[in-house]
Amino acid sequence: MANCSIRAIWILNNQDTVVFSRRFSVVERRWRLACKRENENSNGDNNQISPLLPNDSEFTTAFIERKKREGSSRGFGFRVVQSSEGSDSWVDDPITRHIISLHINKEEEEGEKYFLWPLVLHIRNPYCILILPLVEPRHLKSYERMCNRSDCGSCIGEEESLPSLLLDLPCITGSFMVAHTIGDVITGDSLEPEVLASVAPSVGGLLDSLTGSIGIPSMTARAKPVAAPVAVPNSSGGVSGAATSDTSKISSRLADRDALCTFISSALPFGTPLDLNYSNISAVRVNGFSSTDTPPVDMKQPAWKPYLYRGKQRILFTIHETVYASMYDRDDIPDSISVSGQVNCRAELEGLPDVSLPLNGLSTSHLEVLSFHPCAQISEHGVDKQAMMFSPPVGNFVLIRYQGFCGIGPPVKGFYQLSMVSEDEGAFLFKLRLMEGYKSPITMEYCTLTMPFPRRKIISFNGNPSIGTISTTEHSVEWKIVTVGRGISGKSIEATFPGTIKFAPKTTQKLSTLSRPAHGLITEDDSDDESENINNIANIEDFLLEKMNKDLPPVDLEEPFCWQSYNYARVSFKISGATMSGMSIDPKSVTVYPTVKTPVEFTTQVSSGDYILWNTLGKCPFVAAAPREQLQQQQK
Taking the CB of the first residue and of the last residue of the chain, which one, N or C, has fewer CB atoms within 10 A? Predict the structure, then answer.
C-alpha cells in the first residue's frame, strides 16, 4: 500500500453524529502543495481546487444533506427522477454507493462551497466509516465534470469514465482495506484466518516422538484448526511457539477511543497504511519489546513481523474455498457457479527467512482474480506457472485471495419444482445428483437442503425422500441428505424428494417495526402503486423495505428472495480432500532460505456460500449477459 495515503478519517453513528475523526497533517501538506500547483497552472480557470478540510460540524451537515438528496447514506447508485445535477447519482454508476462525494459549506464564510472526493464509505452498523485518500487534483476535477455531464452511465472505452478513473487510483483499494479494518476494530470482529493442521491421535512413547520430530502425520489424521498465536515475548527475545490461547476474536466490545487512536497511529503512521494486522499491533501495545527482541544486524525486520518466533518449526497451508451457485434448470437461463477462495498460511519459522513456492496449474485453475499479501513477491510469471516468495508474519495470515470458476463441476446439481395447486397447498419435487465426477479422496462431509417459507406458516407436510431425514419448523423444511460422520467419497449418489405441503390461510399482518407506524394494517387487496409516495420519502431504502415488507412478518427481511413469487431452496455442504477451482500447493516444492528442514502440511476445505436452487416453475431473478458481439463492438 505504498501508493496509498490517507488525508482524513471520520466515523459517524446512526444519529449522523461524528463520534471520531482524525486528520493527517503530513498528507494534508502534500495536498495543499498539489492544489497550489494545479491552481497556478489553471490559467484563470474559475474551477479552483480547495485545499481545505471540513471540521466535524461542516462534515456532518454535508453528509446529512447528501443523505436527503441521495435518498440514503449510500445513495441511489443510478440516475433517477430525484437526481440533481452535480450529485453522485447523476453519474449513474453503482460504485457511487461506496465511493461518494460531499459538497462542503464553509461555516465561517457564507456562500462559499467546495467539493470533497473520493470518500470511501463503509457501513458497519451502527457506524458509517468514511476514508478520504490522497488523489491528484486532476482526478477531483475529472469526477466533478462527470457529476455535471448531460449524458449518464459509463461506456467501455469512453475517454472519461468513472471505472477508468478509479483504475488509475490504487489508493481506493487501500482505503477500503483501512475502512474494513477499522470496522472490525470498533465492532470487535477482528478474526484470525483459520489454518488447519493434520493432528494424529496419540499412541504415546517413542513412535510419537519420532513421527512428531520429523513432521510425519498419521494416515488416519484429521485436519483440525490451529489456534491463533498470542505474541508474548519470552526471556530469550522471541515468541514462544507454545504461547497460544483462544483469542481468535480480538475483542468482544466496541473499542474505546484511546484504543482506536493507538491502532490508527500504529497502523497508519503519518497517514500511510503499513500494517493493518490488529493482533500484531495489540500485542506490541500490551507486551512491548525487550532488549533481546532486536533482529540480526544485517537483516531488516518487516512491519508485519514485530516479534521473532522461537520454537519447533513448521509451515501450514490451508486453502479455504466458498462455492456460490444459482441453479435454474432452464434452457433460457444458464446456471451460474463461482468460487471464492483464499490460501491461509502459518509459518512457524525462526529468524527472518524467506519462503518460496511455485503455484502450478494456474491455466487450468479457472482463476479470474488473484491478489497477494504485502509480504509476498512474485518473481516468475508464465502461462501455467507463477513462482512467489514471501517473508511470513507471525501467526495465521491470508497469503493469497482469488476468485474463479468451479473446474470440476457443481458438487450438487439438479432441479427444484414447486407448484401451488391452490392458494394454501403446494406440491414439490427435488431431483439431485451429488458429487458427480468427483473421485476419492474428495469427500462430502455433509449436505443439507432447506426450503424457507418465511411468508407462510406450515401446518402440514408429507414427503418421503430417497435418502436422508426430514425435519420441519413453522416456516421451513430441512432435508439432511448427507449427515456428519457418514460422508460420501469416490462415488456419486442420486437423491429424490417428492412431497406436498400445506400452509395456514393468509391473514392480515402488521408491518415490521422498520416500517412507518402510520401505514397500520395492509391487506392483500391494497394498492401496490410504487409512485404514490416516492417523491415524499426522504430515505429511498426505507421505502424499498416498506414495499418488500408489505403484508410480511419481520423475519422476511432475513430472506429477501422469498418475496412474492421468488421461491428457492438453499443447499449447504462441506467438502474436503481437494479444491473446486483446482488451486493446489505441493508441499515438496516449498523451500525455505536460509535452508532449514521444515515439515510442510497442506489441507483444503470447501464450503457452500449462497448455493441456490430456484423454483423451475416460478419467477426467479437473474443477470442477462450481453452478447459477445456487442461487448466486442463497445471495446473498439
Answer: C
